Amino acid sequence: QVQLLVSGGGLAQAGVSLRLSCAASGRTFSNYGMGWFRQASGKERESVAAINRIGGSIYYADSVKGRFTISRDNAKNTVYLQMNSLKPENTAVYYCAVSTTGYRYDYWGQGTQVTVSS
């Protein structure tokens, strides 16, 4: 079992930055790939970014490339999502997830609301 605790969301004005954190416990964090997802009101959940267990392979959705950065600190069992130049369309509940199987995300954090005003 893996527990994920997400923090760092909130209300922000367009153009500013926020950093989300996802602290993991329960298993050896460094063994697993991690991902960030978001779900806006009335829309399906979408993948935002992903990082493999050592940070050597990273994925970004096209809509966030160049503005968001995913990183991880295996010593702190934490994955981060640095979000710069926020836009109103980035408003969503953001979730982190861990893939212990290598082919699907099987544990999810509780989500944190990010609201960006224009």
Describe it for me?
The chain is mainly β. It contains no helices and 11 strands. The protein has strands at 3-7, 10-13, 18-25, 33-39, 46-51, 58-60, 68-73, 78-83, 92-99, 107-108, 112-117. The strands form 2 sheets. Strands 2, 4, 5, 6, 9, 10 and 11 form a 7-stranded mixed sheet that branches.
Stretches where pLDDT is under 50 for at least 5 consecutive residues are none
Q: What share of residues is helical?
A: under 10%
Rg, alpha carbons: 13 Å
User: How far is it from the N-terminal to the C-terminal residue, by CA?
Assistant: 40 Å
Number of helices: 0
Oligomer: single chain
**Category by helix and strand content:** mainly beta
Order of helices and strands: EEEEEEEEEEE
C-alpha geometry: globular
> Number of DSSP strands?
11
Strand content: over 45%
Largest sheet report? 7 strands, mixed
Describe what is shown at a glance.
It contains no helices and eleven strands. By secondary structure, it is an all-beta fold.
